[in-house]
Hints:
The protein is of the alpha+beta class. Helices cover 20% and strands 45% of the residues. A 14-stranded antiparallel β-barrel has the order 1-2-3-4-5-6-7-8-9-10-11-12-13-14, surrounded by four helices.
Amino acid sequence: MKRLTGISTLIICAACLVFSLEAKAQSGGKGTYCFLNNTGSASVAALGGKNISVYGADLNFAESNPSLLNPQADNHLSINYTSFPGKINFGNFIYAKDFNTCGTFAVGTRYLNYGTFTATDETGKITGSFTAADYVTSLSWAKVFLEKISVGASLKTLFSHYERYTSIGAVLDLGITYISEKDFTASIVLKNLGSQIKPYYPGHYEPVAWEIQAGISKKLQHAPFRIHLTAHKLNNWNLLYTVPKEKHNLDPENKASDASQNFGNKFLRFLDNSSRHLIVGVDFFLLKSFYIAGGYNHQRRMELKIAEKGGFAGFSVGAGLTLQRFGIHFAHSGYHLAGSANYISFYLNINNLRTKKTVETKKI
């Protein structure tokens, strides 16, 4: 009964926090600290860039949803590196430790280095150079209640430095996951709930780009694949950009045709906007320790593709090798014809390394 009360309290507090922030909801691109939306995990990137419903030993999914942190990841260390277009480098690591009745904890850090830029004055004269980078440290916790419900939280401190402008902030992620015995999981996450502590400009505080995400993962019985569906930015329904209306109507008398065309346009815009909230992914387990994965992110494709040629924008592919002591994952995500992102993730199971060392010592 106490466990159930604790879960209910967490959900109620999270809901109250959401409603208190409702009036401050920002549409895409209008909040600060948007770098929090980037993933450094090859596993997550291969499934479309966002996934909050894979419950297992892969620590990187816990960065997307703290309630995915669980005892299977005890004493695991994960290191990730991403190469973005424009020589932008992204790296992070995360370590987890299980404390039985207290739950599972994880600490992590990430950085996003934008490189070195040339500084000029208003006339174009070179005056030197400057750098830009973002840094995040995190402390996460999760615990399973009633055997099938996992709740988690992640506190993140942020430091952002662009040339001479710096900002410090803090955000909180809250997640809850339902784990079924039939290879089905469902999750809801409130992400990036927080604010700036020190703004880039004195006295000019900007809202943090927070969001609500929901996701499900399902592996069909006897099927060698698993399907994932993630819904993101659920607190901001309209993800479309406003198109200026034409001032002149070339055929003012054809009212019936205009009405039909307007209905068709509105329906297509509705489908487009709805699809931008969804990310679809699938992974195939070709062997017990080897998989391939693919994903599609409609919002990314529609915002970054070139009209005449969409290319690979919005699509992603990946593969991974998972062994008892370590694993390695790769992913490639299409952003634009001008460039894509490449991910590599490596994890280490320290428990198994210690076991091997102990056995060898006993033999001696």
